[in-house]
Structures are given as C-alpha cells and as structure tokens.
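Risk register update: the risk of archive-format incompatibility is retired. Evidence:
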Amino acid sequence: MTLPPQTVREQITNRLRDDLVSGRFEAGSMLREIELAGRFGVSRGPVRDAFIQLSHEGYLSYYANRGVMVRHPPNPDDRKFITSIRRQIEAYAIEKGVPNLTDDNLKKVASSLEKLKSACDGGEATSIALCDVEFHEAIMKACGGEDLVGAWRQLCSRMLLTYTRHDDYDQTYREHLDIFNALSERNAEAAIAAIDANIK
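Archived output:
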C-alpha cells in the first residue's frame, strides 16, 4: 500500500516531534516560530500548526505572548502515577475490544510491530521510542478505543520525554511481540499481562 505524501505541516510536526523525543531541545526552553521556520526553510504557518499539534499531544506548553515551551519530564512520583493511568487505559481498551477484534484491525497492529522491529534492528533510540508508541496506539484503535487516544497520547508524550528503555533492543521487541501474540489469540488477560510487563 502506498502512503499519501505528507503535507509540509505533517513534515514539520514529525521533525519537531523527533527532536523533542531525542532531547535536542532542553526542557523549559522556548521555541520560536521564526527561528524554526528559517531552519526548515518554510513560512511560519506550518511551524505554528506544528506547535498547536505538539501542544495537543503534550510535548509543548503555550504561553501567551511568549511562544511555546518544551515541557519538563515528570518527576519520578508523577511518572509512576502517569504510567499507572496509561496501563489502565490500555487494559480497559483491550478488555473491552478484544472480543470484537477483527483480522483487518489485527493486520494494522502487525504492521506497526514490523515497523518497531525494523527500528529495533536499526538501533536508533528516537525511532524506537516513536514506533513503540505507534504500536500501542494501533492496539488502542484496533480494540475500538479511538475516543481514549487523545488523553492517552498526553500521557505517552510525558513518558517519552524520559524514555530510557533502549538498553536491550531485542527485549523491547520481544515484549511487544508477546503483546501481539496474545491479541492474535484473542486472549485479553494475557495481552494485559504483557502490557503490564512492558510499560514501565
């Protein structure tokens, strides 16, 4: 299947998201439209749109008349709480949606798993982190949890700001394979247990 070409807005959003996840921008730093427009060789419009999108996703915070600020990662106690909520959301979607999981939706999850495997094979941490989230989002959608994705993304973005699970790329892939295999068997209990083992 050929994917549609990305718009300029999508390209800028994706590049900035990569920069945020990789730590290129220091937490608490202000981002300026005009500076980034110059860097990317675009007008300020697509940068402004990217700021809005990434603010909705939880990576940035808007401040009137000042611009946008890179959000700080959560402190350890907050991260523990955020992780707990994220697990609950995914477990709820799986428990509710697995009985109605279709083969077509499962193929979409399989596709995202293949992307994660390629990222793990390549060993590029930022790509692994983003493919990891994409895989979990594919599960949410496959299980009918589209209405939960907005709130869930906010939690994931905070966790990505301190993503440190890349010391063993093979283990990262195996944990996600365990989740997928449980979903393939329509075993919600096993899938939830695999989610709990993976999200830390």
